[in-house]
Amino acid sequence: GMVSRADVDAASTSGPTARLEPLRGVRRAMAANMARAHAEVVPATVTDDADVGNWATDEDITLRLVRAIGAACRAEPALNMAFHGPDRGRSPNATVDLGMAVDTPDGLFVPVLSDIVSRSATDLRSAIEAMKHDVVNRSIPPGDLRGQTITLSNFGVFGGRHAALVVVPPQVAIVGAGRRR
Fold first, then answer.
1. Which residues of 6-28 are buried (b: 16+ CB within 10 A; e: fewer)?
2. Cβ neighbours of residue 103 closer than 8 Å, sequence gap 6 or more
3. Is the pLDDT of residue 41 over 70?
4. Which of 3, 86, 92, 106, CA to CA, is 20 to 30 A from 140?
5. pLDDT confidence of residue 137
6. Rounded CA gap, 88 and 104, in Å?
7. What residues pair up with 107 in beta bridges, in sequence order?
8. Ramachandran bin of 115, using left for φ above 0, alpha for ψ from -120 to 50, beta for the remaining angles
């Protein structure tokens, strides 16, 4: 009935750590960004419901959200700032460059739609489709995955009405869109 050294050695080579899978690629980058955000950003979540009852059922919800974020950043420039740390302060971004979270089996990609305020609805829709295509086909240029000044996570396509989202510095805000009811 005693636990021997052989028992301990056997358990250490067959336990959970023996099956560890190293993080690579997108998942490793995601983990690094989440750790950085945890270290630099005070977690705070504000949730609210928006009445979208008058939106048509065939409405392009993603495009409406993109346009709304652009309008919100124009109306409240503090949403589109870059935070450089408590000692250095913050600075305004010249354009609203929207990161759009795209979930894939390999992990979360956040490609960037640049200057969303000055683009037409047609141009934005076309850019969104091209971006999704490039992410799915893993052909998105690395430069298109950097430089967002605010992010949209449309997690409602998976379910759920509310989420505690993570702000990745130097951004100061992320907008989440839950399930439409």
1. eeeeeeeeeeeeeeeeeeeebee
2. 158
3. yes
4. 92
5. 93
6. 36
7. 104
8. left
Indicate the DSSP class of residue 71.
Answer: H
pLDDT over 80 at 90, yes or no: yes
Token pair recorded at residue 79: 């949403």
Tokens of 152: 């949209």
Query: DSSP secondary-structure letter at 72?
Result: H
Rounded CA gap, 58 and 72, in Å? 24
Q: What is the DSSP letter of 4?
A: P
DSSP string, 123-176: HHHHHHHHHHHHHHTT---GGGGS--SEEEE-GGGGS-S-----PPTT---EEE
Residue pair 155/175 in contact by the 8 Å Cβ criterion? no
Bridge partner list, 98: 113, 150
Query: What is the predicted pLDDT for the residue at 94?
Result: 96
What pLDDT does residue 18 have? 60
What is the dihedral sign for C-alpha 41, 165, 81, 127? Answer: positive
Intra-chain end-to-end CA distance of the chain, in Å: 59
Instruction: Using the predicted structure, report yes or no on whether residue 16 has a pLDDT greater than 80.
Output: no
Task: Give me the numbers of helices (H) and strands (E) for the chain, helices first please.
Answer: 4, 8
Cα separations in angstroms, 154 against 73, 102, 162, 163: 18, 9, 11, 10
